[in-house]
Amino acid sequence: MKEKINKYINDINNIVISNPVEASSFKNKYLTKKGVLNQLFSEFKQLPGAEKKETGQLLNKLKILAFSKLETVENNSKPNKNKEIIDVTLPSNYEEIGSVHPLSKVQENIVNILKKVGFSISKEREIEDDWHNFSALNMPQNHPARDMQDTFFIDLNPDILLRTHTSSVQIRHMEKHKPPIRIISPGRVYRKEDISARAHCIFHQIEGLYIDQNVSFSDLKAIINYFLKSLFGKDVKTRFRPSFFPFTEPSAEVDIYWGLESESDYRITKGTGWLEIMGCGMIDPNVLKNVNIDADKFSGFAFGLGIERITMLLYQIDDLRLFFENDIRFIKQFQKAF
Ligand code: PHE
């Protein structure tokens, strides 16, 4: 009898049921009253007790196999409510795509313009000591110019602080490298200012430093004019106004002519049509001495500008705080502009 059962097991394993007709003939053959299974069970009852155990197990195996074969066929043929149905014609899930932050984009543009004329990037720490942020830049303790940059101190004695400008990178770079030097250093700076539409305690600057033999103020002017024309268009008018920075001598502030066409032009240029864009000057020989560069042999210039200010002008943004709120509705407006 065991052989017979094994033969049926084998048969069922090999049967392919591919339509309802085949399914019902399978059912008729194996699972009806007079079907194979019932017959076998009747035979089983006649068996001597000693054979019952093994044969019974085998018979059960056949029974389970026959029922499960039919069950899988029936399940496959009727629509299954639990099965996920994918409708490929539906629109896909909407994924929110971010956008490059306007400050990053403007910074990248500025860096690319200056890279074209031989500047390379130098980055440095944002937590500085007094020497690199102030003293080496010709601002010794108690120098009144320190008041121009309200400082966040992290530690006192020795003074550790959040850098107030990217000029600290000049010093670190000159300590490590000999001229010729042509670097730009973009980065975050910190000042203890009350937050308003026009001021923030965090903002971004780019510093430029150029040191070589025989560098003159006209080289500085040429680079800055090239830079501002590339950024604001070739017709932009610029002017250099004498100014003061402790680390440059002579120093200047650079303005561009913005025009006086609208009410907002009057407001942002204070009625003059001119806008201050950046600071610059020839490196003070004292600064070169502080980093052991021979001031008789080498000269150079530096310039620095605020990235927020430039971005606000380029895209007519009138509140500085928007840059730091990361509201996707604000940032997304720049997707097309870039
Ligand atoms: N570090 C100056 C500031 O933050 C800007 C500057 C840089 C001026 C380089 C001149 C030369 O105000």
What labels would you give this structure?
single chain; 338 residues; alpha+beta; BirA Bifunctional Protein, domain 2; 7-stranded mixed β-sheet; 3-stranded antiparallel β-sheet; 13 helices; binds phenylalanine
Description:
- This protein has 2 domains: about 80 residues; about 230 residues, 2-Layer Sandwich (BirA Bifunctional Protein, domain 2).
- The model has no long low-confidence stretch (mean pLDDT about 90).
- The chain has 13 helices and 10 strands.
- The chain is α+β, with helices and mostly antiparallel strands and about 350 residues long.
- The strands form 2 sheets. The protein has a 7-stranded mixed sheet with strand order 1-5-6-10-9-8-7, sandwiched between helices.
- The radius of gyration is 41 Å and the shape is elongated.
- Strand 3 and strand 4 form a beta hairpin.
- Phenylalanine binds next to strand 9 and strand 10.
What kind of sheet is the major sheet? 7 strands, mixed
Number of beta-strand segments? 10
* Low-pLDDT sequence parts: none
Number of domains: 2
Count of helices? 13
- The chain-level mean pLDDT equals 91
Helical percentage: 40-55%
Strand order across the largest sheet: 1-5-6-10-9-8-7
CATH topology of the largest domain: BirA Bifunctional Protein, domain 2
Broad structural category:
alpha+beta
